[in-house]
Structure formats: structure tokens, C-alpha cells
Amino acid sequence: MMKYYIENLYLEITRNCTLECAHCFKGKKQNINMPLNIIDKVFKDIDKIDFLLLCGGEVLLCDKELERVYFNIKTNNIKVNYISIITNATILNSNILKILKELSLISNLQIYISGDKFHFMELEKKKLVDIRNKNVRILKELLNAKCWDYQYNEEYKIDKVGNALLLTQKDIDEINSWKIKTNYKIKSEYETNLKRIRHASPFIVNNSIFRYIQVDACGNISPIYYSYNEEDNLAYGTLNNENSFIENIKLIKKD
Ligand code: SF4
Q1: Which terminus, N or C, of the chain has the lesser number of Cβ atoms within 10 Å?
Q2: Distance CA 33, CA 36 (A)
């Protein structure tokens, strides 16, 4: 059976989270993790990935799903150049550390730790700052330099979707008064951006799939960067059918 190379694969491992950040473009958290059979289906026809992003929600809530990703890469002998994980670092246990270590042995594992002002407002509210900072130290120790703390990232780009739809003009004025570079996008700009993203839908040449493919936690194949509420109308297709992952990608029509 022909195996495929994928340039950029984004997996939304979960929609659950330990935080509820005011700017979260994912919107209200949901108790949904990516089903294990969808994870199996995604990796079945692949032999190489350049960039694999595991995102959420909070990915480190998902021992079972991360283990399944590792199992699939290992048993199918898939070469993955980079695996990136985005986390808020509020949750860590020995099993998760073991899985992260395993992932770091089969690929270049990169951990991006969210830490902008919005995250810290939420961390302070939930009294999780000390735990977060302790976990960051543990992750850095485990993975040496391949762990980036975005605590000092001073550039903010907020799409007015998800939780950010609830921000009032007073909130926006306050954000803009911070001594940081702020880019508060209005929804119409976001929609234009979305059209551009959809136009850049993935395409196949021989056995290579270029651009970006995102599979969300419900098994939808979707364009990158939009909120939960909008996705049902915008998904390219679903993996909850008889077709293989590749067959589903072949069904994607360019706008
Ligand atoms: S921004 Fe990240 S950490 Fe904050 S609620 Fe959304 S998914 Fe969770």
C-alpha cells in the first residue's frame, strides 16, 4: 500500500483545558478528546511527516491520546522531523513525563509554553502560577533547550473569535493601554484571513501532501485557526466515515 509524506499535520488532541483564558480563540472548553480510532486512522497511511503539532485545549491532560500518537509513530515506523506541543504547563505527572521523553527519542520534540498576559491573569485567578513555573523548570530539565517559555513574549495578536468575542470595549481599551504591542483584530478581518487559509487548502503531488492539514478533536479535517463554534460549517470533511485519511484528503476541494 502506498504511504504518504505530509508536510504539516496539526492534531487537536483535546478541547478540554485547565484554564479559561479571556482571549482563547477556541472558545468555551469542552470535555472532548480525540478518539483513539481517529488517531490510528490518521497515522495508518503515512511514512513521513515534516512538522507534527499536537495542540488543544491542554494537551498534557491527555496521557492516553499522547501514548497512542507515540505508539502509532513507533509501530508504523514513521519518520517525524519535528513534534511540537503547546501547553500551559499547569498539569504534569510522571506518566506524561515518560511519554514526552519517549517522543523526544523518536523526533525533535519542541515544547511551547504559553505565558502571555492573558494566561497569567488566568493563572493568578486560579492560583496556579507557582505550579506552572515549577512545571516549566521540570520540562526544561527533561528536554534541555527544546522548551520555550513564552512568558516574556510581548506581542499579542487576538482574533475576535471564541472567548475573545466576550471582550468589551472597556477590556480592549485596557489591553491597548498595556505597554505591549497589541493587535486586536476585528471579525471581518478574521473572516478574510479565514478565506485565505481555506484557499491554501492541502494538495497532493504523487505521494506527498503539502501545506497544512488539521484534524480536530471530533475527527473533522479542517482549515487551521478557527474557533469551535464555527467549525462545523467550515470543515473540509470528516474522518468519521469509511474512507481512509488519504481518501478523505483527496476529497478536499480547493475554493
Ligand atoms: S488559550 Fe490555551 S490555555 Fe488558555 S483556555 Fe485556551 S487552550 Fe486553554
Answers
A1: N
A2: 9
